[in-house]
Amino acid sequence: MGSRSSWGSVRKLPSGRYQARYCVEGQLVAAPTTFRTKRDAEVYLSTVRADIERGHWVDPAARQVSLGEYATRWLDLRPGLRPRTLELYESELRLHILPALGDLELTKITPTTVREWHAGMLRAGTPGRSTVAKCYRLLRAILNTAVADELILRNPCVINGAGTESAPERPIASIPQVFDIAEVIEPRFRAMVLIGAFVGLRLGEMLALTRGRVDLDSGAIRVVEQYQELKDGTWVLGPPKSAAGVRRVAIPELLVPELAVHLDRFAAAGRDGLLFPGTHGQPVRRAAWYRAWGRALATIGIEGMKPHDLRHTGNTLAAMTGASTKELMARFGQSTSRAALIYQHATRDRDQQIADGLNGMIDAHLKQRPARRPDVSG
DNA sequence: ATAGAGCCGTGAGTAAGCGA
DNA sequence: TCGCTTACTCACGGCTCTAT
């Protein structure tokens, strides 16, 4: 006969050891281990009771769940992830997280475990810092869910700043450079360069453009979807990166004839015909575009510029026209002012140039006339 | 403003294709 | 078969949206 209270009990097993059990939500839960003395079992029960009262109780069954099992389930329960993100998470888990931590039970993962895993990657130098930060963020996200599921008390990912990545400022193509690139790039990509720079579409958005989305009469492009290319080479047509990505963007008038020529020569037939079709009717492959870009830049001797930098050009030029941040966000499909500001760094540089120019004019003016002190007496 | 989370871009390495 | 080009795969690095 064991000792009892309203919620838990201790009993002596045939082995002579003591087992503590208690009732949670109508279920009888046994302690994960047995105890040598009845007193030890009772102490255990009292700590469990205290945890329950503080809201800190964790199901002992959860202690058996390994990170590997939990991470797999975590991914399964996120059907809303975009395909590319799913691919990314799977490879981060497979390559960097699970080999090191996958066999550990959730409750065995301590801040020290995480710290050692994280420091180990940084020390090794592979993967790069950006990937390390990504892996850390994914682990933290998974363990946050484990906290919410009440499988662990707190998240052991507590390294300050480990989840953030620093992004260097990107170069910006000047208007002459944009046209230089457009001039020498494979002709089927010419319009892509111009649209990228002066309409500022994201690559996936350009790939999903069809004849029907381009209205040369009113001079506008409707962006309503984007194409993503997966590892296995399949294509996924989906919504743009954010809700703000669905938009109508006006085309600078001088670009209209360029687009007319492109439609004529390169776009697939029909209203649903892709603007930038690949050789087999599918959207043109990213790699083909990057290669063409690389060759074009090599031809004209520009270094370090990447296709996505065209979008910076478009944003920055648009900012220089005096567009407000709101207007820029609408044009470039950004949903936060922070994103818009990322693209406006060069405008601050430009402002400095303006100030410098003014300075020169004032300087020239002052040199032409005798110095006169400002009259501050009256 | 910052942290957390999600998404996209890039390029090295390798396989496949192809003409000489 | 060789040597070159193109296509493909994979893993990494960077950007940006959302929540707080």
From TrEMBL:
<protein>
    <submittedName>
        <fullName>Tyrosine-type recombinase/integrase</fullName>
    </submittedName>
</protein>
<dbReference type="InterPro" id="IPR058717">
    <property type="entry name" value="Phage_L5_Integrase_N"/>
</dbReference>
<dbReference type="GO" id="GO:0015074">
    <property type="term" value="P:DNA integration"/>
</dbReference>
<dbReference type="Pfam" id="PF00589">
    <property type="entry name" value="Phage_integrase"/>
</dbReference>
<dbReference type="GO" id="GO:0006310">
    <property type="term" value="P:DNA recombination"/>
</dbReference>
<dbReference type="InterPro" id="IPR002104">
    <property type="entry name" value="Integrase_catalytic"/>
</dbReference>
<dbReference type="InterPro" id="IPR050090">
    <property type="entry name" value="Tyrosine_recombinase_XerCD"/>
</dbReference>
<keyword id="KW-0233">DNA recombination</keyword>
<dbReference type="Pfam" id="PF14659">
    <property type="entry name" value="Phage_int_SAM_3"/>
</dbReference>
<dbReference type="InterPro" id="IPR010998">
    <property type="entry name" value="Integrase_recombinase_N"/>
</dbReference>
<feature type="domain" description="Core-binding (CB)">
    <location>
        <begin position="65"/>
        <end position="147"/>
    </location>
</feature>
<feature type="domain" description="Tyr recombinase">
    <location>
        <begin position="168"/>
        <end position="356"/>
    </location>
</feature>
<dbReference type="InterPro" id="IPR004107">
    <property type="entry name" value="Integrase_SAM-like_N"/>
</dbReference>
<dbReference type="InterPro" id="IPR011010">
    <property type="entry name" value="DNA_brk_join_enz"/>
</dbReference>
<dbReference type="InterPro" id="IPR013762">
    <property type="entry name" value="Integrase-like_cat_sf"/>
</dbReference>
<dbReference type="InterPro" id="IPR044068">
    <property type="entry name" value="CB"/>
</dbReference>
<keyword id="KW-0238">DNA-binding</keyword>
<dbReference type="Pfam" id="PF26003">
    <property type="entry name" value="Integrase_N_phage"/>
</dbReference>
<keyword id="KW-0229">DNA integration</keyword>
<comment type="similarity">
    <text>Belongs to the 'phage' integrase family.</text>
</comment>
<dbReference type="GO" id="GO:0003677">
    <property type="term" value="F:DNA binding"/>
</dbReference>
